[in-house]
Amino acid sequence: MDTSSPAVLVNGELLPMHVGKRVRAVIQVLRSDGSGTVTGKSTDGQQIFVKGHPPAPLSTFVEVIGIADSNQSVRADIWTNFGDVFDTQGYNHICQLANGEYKHLFI
Amino acid sequence: MFSSSQIDVAGGGFSSSQTTDSSRSSAKSRDAQPMVPVTVKQISDAVLSTDDKSSFKIDGVDVKNVMLVGMAFNKSEKVTDVQFEIDDGTGRIGCLRWINDAVDTKEVGRVEDGKYVRVHGLLKALQGKKQLQVFAIRPLNNYDELSSHFLACIHYHSFNTRRNGVIAPSQVHNPISAVSTPVNGHKSSSSNQFYGEYSTDGLKGIDKMVIEYLEQPSSVAQEKGVHRNEIAQHLKIPLEKILETIESLESEGLIYSTIDECHYKSTTCG
């Protein structure tokens, strides 16, 4: 990871606003093909594709941190298994707050 | 430099009494300087407090002890201490944890690069760079802690900025007389009216009114306390709202019931 380069908390809706920037998101893994692309559902229910070197095995929820390379995909360099139980609603809410009213606390 | 005898980190617990030479002042003022949940961005925006040179100002409040949740990186272990960086997605900060005994060693042993951890520490500035002197560090139990930590940062920030931003000179020394508007008026007027320099900052309008009514000398003088119907009548607020308020004030320890569940007195006055 680059030193002190912040990663914006995003969900499916916010990802297109940060294309080209460093982002982080938690996704629910839908499927993973062998060649390093994971199809996931963002915390607001949209489909996101994540490319990189996922860990094996992948848990149900994974946090990915990397560069958003399109409206719907992220090239992730950090993958963290978040387990099989996760409060997506809470995280989604945080994404909205961190990009809205409380942006100055995060970026 | 800090000698090991000054540091008490037994059991890996954390409280402001575990800070080093500032322990005396922070133990005394523990209520005034709580452990504040922050993001690294907030820390980097903080300035050295002018009143107290050993603390920082975040959102206008003096802060010494902070809580962070993030990923550990660049862990470097030495005999007497462990250094690492915490990255919470908003920035990175260097951390230092002194190692005194086996408990400490075990605690830092659980920290690995790339793992999410929660740290509690003292905010310090060394040669212009901010650093965290860590009392306690542990891996996250579950990742919902990440969301709830950010929420806590937002809440704390919101609470402080609202309080500091809303104190205006003229108002609120006699809110009871200021409120002759009906309950609807409450909701439409901004809650600005009810925040002031009381220690009950942060209470909503009706809560404040009830507390203030109970703090009036005439209420305090009544040994039996004040009947809730009387509060409702006097403040011209529907009884159900008063009941809700009473419940929340009681759970916060600001009022207590006296001869029965209908009579209340303020805990801070009388």
The CATH superfamily title of chain A: Nucleic acid-binding proteins
Average pLDDT rating of chain A: 91
The greatest inter-chain interface is formed by:
A-B, 29 and 25 residues
What is the percentage of strand-forming residues of chain A? 35-45%
Determine the oligomeric state from the structure.
heterodimer
Q: Main sheet of chain A: which strands, in order across?
A: 2-3-4-6-5
The N- and C-terminal alpha carbons of chain B lie at a distance of 48 Å
Domain Replication protein A C-terminal (chain B): 171-261
Region (Disordered) (chain B): 1-35
Biased composition (Low complexity) (chain B): 15-26
GO cellular component, one term (chain B): DNA replication factor A complex
Task: Give structural notes.
- The complex is a heterodimer of chains A (107) and B (270).
- Chain A is mainly beta and 107 residues long.
- Chain A has one helix and six strands, in the order ββββββα.
- A five-stranded mixed β-barrel of chain A has the order 2-3-4-6-5.
- By secondary structure, chain B is of the alpha+beta class.
- Chain B has two domains: 36-164, OB fold (Dihydrolipoamide Acetyltransferase, E2P), CATH 2.40.50; 202-266, Arc Repressor Mutant, subunit A (Orthogonal Bundle), CATH 1.10.10.
- Chain B is built from ten helices and twelve strands.
- In chain B, the strands form three sheets. Chain B has a five-stranded mixed barrel with strand order 5-6-7-9-8. Chain B has a three-stranded antiparallel sheet with strand order 2-3-4.
- In chain B, a hairpin with a 3-residue loop joins strand 5 (65-77) and strand 6 (81-87).
- In chain B, helix 7 packs across helix 10 (239-251) and helix 9 (228-235) packs across helix 10.
- At the A-B interface, strand 5, strand 6 and helix 1 of A face helix 2 and helix 4 of B.
